[in-house]
Structures are given as structure tokens and as C-alpha cells.
Amino acid sequence: MNLLAAIATGSLQASGDNEFHAPTIEEFFPDPILFGGTPFEINRVIMVRLISVAVLCTILVLYSRRAKLIPGRAQGSVEMLLDFSRKSIGEELLGKNAGPYQPLLASMFLGILFMNLTGIIPGLQIASTSIIGMPIIYAVLAYVAFIYAGIKSHGTFNFFKSQLFPPGVPKPIYILMTPIELLSTFVLRPLTLTIRLLANMVSGHLLLVLCFVGTNALYLSMGGVGGLALGTLTLVGGIAFTAFEAFVACLQAYIFALLTAAYISLSIEEH
Fold this sequence. Notes:
The chain has 271 residues and is mostly helical. It has 8 helices and 2 strands, in the order αββααααααα. It has helices at residues 2-9, 44-66, 73-94, 102-117, 133-154, 156-164, 174-222, 224-268, and strands spanning 32-34, 42-43. The longest helix is centred in the last third of the chain and has 49 residues, at 174-222. The model is unreliable at 1-16 (pLDDT under 50).
């Protein structure tokens, strides 16, 4: 059962006892593995990010090079994900305007999906998006795409005018509305994208660690019938929450890409 706790926390070092240690925020700031004390420091979270990117790139390269007219299971799975991002995200919200933005939306969806799913893979066991750096990067990409699409469609002046001064509103109302539009459109949007993704991945990881480390402590420290019963309960809960975390990982990737498409749609359409 020590192995179970180690898998849950992503640590390969034994704690030295079987007592329960509640997960803390330090879970997300592990010691460096390589290049410690330099700007190129790599810890477990960075390593997991690199692994997820390498796996995704390998899958896509193999798909592009080995694609056949009649797809096999592997090719069909990749095409299903790409078609989902195209039809259910891009075309669903952008319609005929989806083409230029589809590569960005597909990259966001697949990138976030693979980075989220590392949170339930034994040996990795931490979502690559559970540290604020990656959610911020994806949110900035969505923010830049939203502004770029609006400027491309309407021009710089008309875009910002339409966003900050919606037509058809009595002029005195702009005194109240324009600061609200500025805050909600150009400040809160990237913040909400970042916080939504980050909070879901952090809470999911802490919940899984709590269940599996609690199982380890109950089985080995408490012992007896009571420890066995409670440990089994937390073990079953951990397995159930693992399945739920897989669902949340997929859902958050979809929501992030969907909101990006929605913001781009709002920027290119006339009010």
C-alpha cells in the first residue's frame, strides 16, 4: 500500500511511516530533477508537461504520415477528436468563419486535454495544467486570438468602439457601461479562463491524493476491521473520483476551447 500512496502523490520516495499526511499546496512545487537553481530548472510538473507534449506530437505526426483512406482504430480515434473540435467547437459557434481559427481551437482542445489527463496516469499523477503557468499561456492565446479576429474583421478603431460602446444605447449610459465592458471583456475574460481551468485541476489532484493516501494510512496504521472497512471505502472513493477526474479533464478542455470560439465569434460579429 505504500506503493499506492506513492502513485497517488507522484513520489517515488517513502515517507518513512504509515501515518496520514494531508496533501498541501507543496504537492504542486516539487524539488527540481534537472538544472536546479537555473532558469531551465525541470521538476516533476515540467517533466510531465514535456511528456504530454511529446506524446501528443508523436500521435499527430504518426497520424499524418500513416493516414489511410480506410482508417484503423488508432487513426479513427485521432480523427474523432479532430472532427469533434471542428464540428462541435469551431463550426458550432463560428460557422463558415471557423476555417482560419480551427488550427488554434484544435491545438487548444488537444493540448489541454492531454495535459489534463496526466492527472490520472499512474507514475505521472499530476495534471500539467494544475500550475498556473500553463492556464495563463492558453488564456493569453485565447485573448490574443479574440482581439486579432476582431481587428481583422472590423479594423482597430471600429473593433474597440463596438466592444466598449455598443450601439443603440443612450449616450449617458456609456458612463456606466463602458468601464464595465472594459473590465468584463478585456480583463476578466482571460482571468476567468485561467482560474476555471486551474481550480478544477488543483482540486481534482488534491481529492485523489486525499483518498489514496488516506487508504494507505487506514490500512497500515489503523488496522483491524475498522481500518480495513474505512480503507476500502476510501479506496473505492478514490477509484470513483479517478473516473470523475477523467470526465472533468475532458470537459474542461472542451469548455476552454468552446469559450475561446465564443469570444472569437463575439469579436467578429456585429453587435
